[in-house]
Structures are given as structure tokens and as C-alpha cells.
Sequence to fold (896 residues):
Amino acid sequence: MQQLLNGIFIGSIYALFAIGFTLVFGILDRLNLAHPAVFAASAFVGIELVERGGLSLWAALPLVFVVGGVLGLLIERLAFRPLKGRADAHFAGLISSIALAGMLIALLQWRYGPDTRRFPPGSFPDTRFEVFGAQVTLVQVVILAVSLALMVGLTYMVTRTRLGRGMRAVAENPTAARVLGVDVDRVTAVTFAISSALGAVAGVLFAINVNTAQLGMGAAIELKGLAVIIVGGMGSLPGALIGGLLLGLAEVFAVQYIGSSWIDVIAFGLLFVILLLRPQGLLGARKVREV
Amino acid sequence: MLAQYATTLTFIALGAIFAYSFYAVLIAGQLSLGQAGFAALSAFAGAYLAPSPADVGDVPSLLIAVAIGMSVGALAAVVLGLPTMHLRGVFLAIATLGFAEAVRVVLTNQEWTGGAQGLGVPRVLTVGMAWLALGLVAYWFWRMGRSRYGRALAAIREDELAARAMGIDVGRHRLAAFVTAGAVAGLYGVLYAYYVRLIAPDDFDFTAAVEGLVTAVVGGSTMFLGPLLGSGFQTIVPEIQRAVGVEAGWIRPFLASLLLLVVILFLPGGLASLLPRRTRMPGTTGDQAGKRAGRTHPAAGETVVSLAGLGKEYGGVHAVRDVDLEVRAGEVVGLIGPNGAGKTTLVNMISGLVPPSTGTATVLGAAIGRTPVHRIAAAGVSRTFQHAKLFNRLSALENVLVGAHLVSRPTFLRRLLWLPSARRDERAALLQAAGCLERVGLADQAATRAEALSYGDQRRLEIARALASDPSLLILDEPAAGMNHVEAQRLSELITSLARDGLTILFIEHNVGMVLRTCTRVVVLNFGEVIASGAPGEIASDPAVIEAYLGSADEDPAGGSIAEGTLDDPASAERADTPPDAVANVRPGAAGDLEPPDTTPRNAT
Fold:
């Protein structure tokens, strides 16, 4: 039971991270490899807000959300918009976002140094609950609640609001969307901002969960994020949620029953099988290219 | 002097070789990150299995290890490639990345690899050997570039569907490129192992794979020198920073990333795009080798196309219904009908791009529906597309050379050995391609990239490309769309002259006047069914045809003969007078959907 809950907590963070990933891919058809750098950066920023700014953990979260959004706008402007209309935009976008991620990590190193950082002692309330005989901290409950709330909010926005309609229109056909009066550039920028804001919150939550932030934490979750969005189905938001939870659970149980050194084989074995059997992912729809 | 830079130079060579393993698939438009896995398998297998340098000497030991490593890499690529070659774009990248990560974890958990501690390997590789190996790899890709095989890979990168229609077996070519990548990655793995003294599975992780990809793309993935330039750039930038005294820490990676961003944003073709590129034109001097007998064509009057009850249904909508049609060699058949009548769908079925739902069809002896597109092309069918599908980043001449794929001989292996016969074959192909360009009046545009041509010229280039395969049946899908009257007139003359040469032509056109002037027979489709078929004169006065085009006579007294040929766009004829079962009209764009259902979203390359 304890393992199950732990799996759900870590899985919800994976899901939140992956949803940011898959949002950009699903709507704009671009893989943003600077996403993991935002994840790492926000963890450091979150720690600084708590440590120096003296904010409580909960007050820091919305601020980190905003910081993530700003980073997203920067990523779009610097790494993706200049490539618009280029035949190799797909490859080039991968590389330019990798370059931007490198710059971001270098800046983090400048500001915070290469060492692992932690939240100051006493940042976490010690409230604990007992659920079905398993220990659960208030922090973990908040992680789950925040992740779920953001995912529900995002789903509502994409399916119900005017902006979300614009996003779906752009995903379907950018040219037609433009003709019909959708401001494609604005929708693109907003998509990046939301995606990065979600990744940023995921980063802080992850740092809270393990109480550490490292420069390499983004790279470590990057592969998992990719696995999750493939398993769930590229561009599918509920797919990313399910994929994230699956991965979190699989990892926790793999550590317990098989040994920690084999974790990644589980994730990638699953990934590989899914790609072969159902390339569009569990919940992804097949997209047919137009001629 | 050299000794001082030996380490840097060796790493440039090693980085370049690894980048070539990415280049090997990028030129075919595939994004793979599995090379790190191939390199890891090869490095450990080579280092573990090859005899020690103490027993057999340095060079033999290294050579044996290289042989083992390249075989292991190639074999792994076959094993991984067979199930994954149907994946495209990011999906292939992530699947191969999953493979590489799995390899890394498995190797880490093995006893014989030393696990995370790594495996000690004697240092045998010298800077000279590294550059010799790099030279051989670069030579391979240099000679490949202008061979038939190299052009076929470039064509697949630019437009897979058009490449298929030109008779290129895409699956085999993609797998071949992948296996090449595996072998080159294997070479890198072994050389790396014999240089760094200690290899660990983590040397071949995700970061390493991304670095290899970045190196290849920065250098330029369409020119054989690209990976070398990229590796030089990636290795030398930190060295220069150190030399000029930039402190270690965050500034170096920051500047390196910034430079990478600048290169990728402002040099679309990578560093290699800074190099001048010469375009080759066959000299007009020398013997005009004359027409090479490409293939044997059916004699005039023999059946070329035979359709029986052919139909195509898209989710309950009948795009084409129960079409019987026979086309004989030497005929020029015009296919007309209002928009959405099913013309393009019919032609797509005949050229094998779309499998029929019902009925049977034989085209030049090939059974439609069971024969892959490239086989149908090999049988002698060549076509153009409604929306020009050219190989955009190739020159006009190269486009036509790809068109000649089926009638030219493979030259790559002979080009590696500089055999004169390869030179002769290439020259013959060039002359033939130049001849096709001249025939459509594009000889002076041979060196222009296809994407830079005007719309009308692109249409004509497509015809030249289709002609290059010396087809028995030429299918043109709206060749005159977007052409003015003068251009359309010239096109009509071209078609007539092709027919005089004995070519069978089937073409879709909205310019009815042109069709009536050019064709020996006209077939009219409406709502997926043949409503009339016959000589141009009969068709022009057929009441059913006039009704389909202009509405029924009593409603529209102006609807006289359509033979004046002024009717360019019959789309306006589809109006309120469509029959109640108008559902049969295909959904917009359905006819144009040619892509096989693959998993790649739009724009994926």
C-alpha cells in the first residue's frame, strides 16, 4: 500500500512534466528539449524563493508557475520562432532547444554553483496522515492535489475555452487556423508558456518530494518524460497522465521486486513494446499526413 | 607540435566518425538516437573478444576488434531496424533511444563488462590511425553522394511518397542506411575504446547520443563534409576558450551553447552550407550517347491498363464506383469530370498508391492492390501529382536523375573503386536526364533547386522526372493547373509529341479544350462513375457530359457545347442541381490523401 501511494505521488509529478512536453508536441508538432532545463531551473528558483525570499512553500508555487511561463515565452521566441517556415524546422528545433537548455543550465551553475541544494530545514510541515495503514505526509498530498488540479485545469482550458479552441485549431491545421482569424503566433507563444509553467511546477514538486535540486535533474527526467508521452500517446493529455502514473508505479514496484539497477529497462522495455504494437500510444490518435 | 594537439585531433576524428553514424541516416531523413547503443555493444564486444595487443601486436588486435565491432553494430542495426523501420520522425528517435538505454542498463548489469566501473582496454589508437579511419568513412560518404544509391536516399528524405512512385524501394533503402549507421557507430565504439583506456556503459548514454546528433546537424546533414566540420567546431570551441583564458565553470558551456544556437538559427544547412557547392552539368561536348534502350514497351494496341469493377470507398463514401476501363498502348486518354468526381482517386489506384476496395485491376501485368508502389513503377508506370511533389532541396537535374532510378544502374560500389564503367553509367544517366529537362524546356534551370522554380516550371519538372524512367504508361494529374494559355498550349504539344514516340498517356485535366485537342479518347467521370467514354468529338456533344458540367439543359439554356474550351473551372457547375444522392461526392481532399496511414504527424521529416 505504501508503495502504491509512493508510486502515485512520483507518477503524478512525471505526468505533470510529461503533459508540458506533450502539449507542445500535440499542438505545435515540435519536441521542446529545453523543457527539462525549465524543470531543473524552477527547482532552484523555488528553493531560492523559500530560502532567501522567506516565502512559505505554498506561496512559492504560483511564483514558480509564473517564472516557468516566462521561460516558456523565451524558449519560443529564441529557439522556435526564428525557425518558422524552414524545411528542416523539425531537426533544427530539436537542436536549438538543446542549445537553449545548455545555456539555461550554465546560467544555473553560475547562480547556484554545481552542488546539490536543499530546502532550508523546517520548510516542510510534519503533518502526517495514515491512509489504509500507510504513512502519507501533507506534502505528498499537496503534490498530488496540485498536480491533479493543474491537469484538470489544463484539460478544461483546452476543451472549453476560446484559447483552447484556438490551440486545437492550430494543432489541426495552422494555415486554416490563421485564415479563420486565429492569431497563430499568440497561440503558439501561450502554448509554450503554459507547457513550461507546468514543467516548472513539476520541477519544484519533484524537489520538494526528494528535498534536493541538482543541475542534472532535468536530464534524468527527460527520458522518462519521453517514455511517458509515447506510452500515453503523443499529444494526448489524458494519455500523459496515465503514462506518468504507470511509470511511477512500475518504478516503485521494480525497485522493490527486481532491483533498482533495472528500473530503466522496465520503462524502456514498455516503451519499445508499445511503439511496436501501437505506435500511436495508448490514447493517441493516428494522424494522417495531408498531401 | 603535433604531439601537443594529438589528443584534440584524435577527439575531433572520433567525434566526426560518431557524427557520421548519424549523418548516415539523416541523409535519408531518419532521426535515430540508437547509435549510442550500437557503439556501446560494439565497444564492449570488440574489447572483450579481440585478442590482446600483447599477443598479436597492436595493429592486428585493433583491426580484429574493429571487424568485430562493425559487424556487431551492423547486426544490431538489422535486429533493431527490422521492427522499427515503419516508424517515422520523433517516434523512430524515441524507439531507438529506448533501445540504446536498454543496452546501457543491460551492459551495466553484466559481469564481463565490469559494470559501472568499466572495462580496461589498452590504448592502441594513435592520432594517425584515427584520422585514417575518419578518412575512409568520409570517403565512403563522399563517393555515395553522387551515386544512384545516394540520390535515392536524398529523394526519400525529401519526399518519401514521390520516391516510391519513382520506383525506389523505400523500406530497403532505409534499412540499408540504418545498417550503415550501425557499422559506423560500431567503428566509433571500438576506436573510442582503444583510445580512452577505460570504457564504461555510461560513456554511451543519452547525452552522448544527443551530442553525436548535434555534431552531425551543426556540421550539416546534407553534405559529406558536414560531420567533420561539426566535430571540429564542437571540439575546438572549448579548446579556444581555454587557450584565450576563459575561466572554467559556467561560461564555457554557456558560450558553446550560444554558438550552437547561433549556428542552427542562422546557417540552415549547417556549417557545410558555408562551403561552395558546385553543380554539375553534363558537357554538351562529347558524343550524344543516343537513346539507350531502357526497357521494352508494349506494342501499339496491346492492353496497358485493365480495370474491372474497380471501386474505392472512404468510410461509406464512394469516391470511385464500379469503373471498367481498358487503355491500350499508344492511346492518349483524357480523364475529365467535375471536382470530386474521383479522378485522382482512380489514378492513385492505377499507380498503386491507394489500394482499391472492390474490383480488380491489372496495369502492365502488375496486379493492383497487392503490388507495392515501387514495383508498379518498375513495371513501367510513371506519374506526376496533383500538387507537385518534387524533391525540393535537390536541383532540377538531380530530381530528374532520381526519376531515372529504374533505368540506371547502381553505381555506388563501383564509384568507391573509381571504376570507369561507373563513370560511364553516371554520365549516361546525366545525359538522359539533361535530355528530359530539355524536352520540357527546362535545360537552363538544371542547377536551380526545385523549390526555387516557378509554379509552372515545377509542373514541367515533374513531367521531366516522370519521363526519365522511360515509362510505358505516363499518368499526369492536372499538368496544366496554374499554367497560362501559352504554357498550356506548349504542354499540349509536348503530350502530342510524347504520344508520337509511342508512349501511352493517361491524364486528368480541367482544361477541357486542351483535353479535346490532345486526346485520342476521353473518359468522363462524375460521382465516381464513368458517365461517358469515347472520341473527343462525341464527348463534346454528349448530353450527359454537358449536364454534368453545366447542369441540365432546361435549367441552364446557356449550356451549349463545351467544345470551345473556355471552361477552365467546372467546379462552379456543382450546384444546387446535384442529385439527391449527392453524398457520393467525396469529402473534400479525400482524393488527394495519398499517404499511407503512418504514425508521423504532418511536417515530420
User: Anything to note?
Assistant: Chain B has 22 helices and twelve strands.
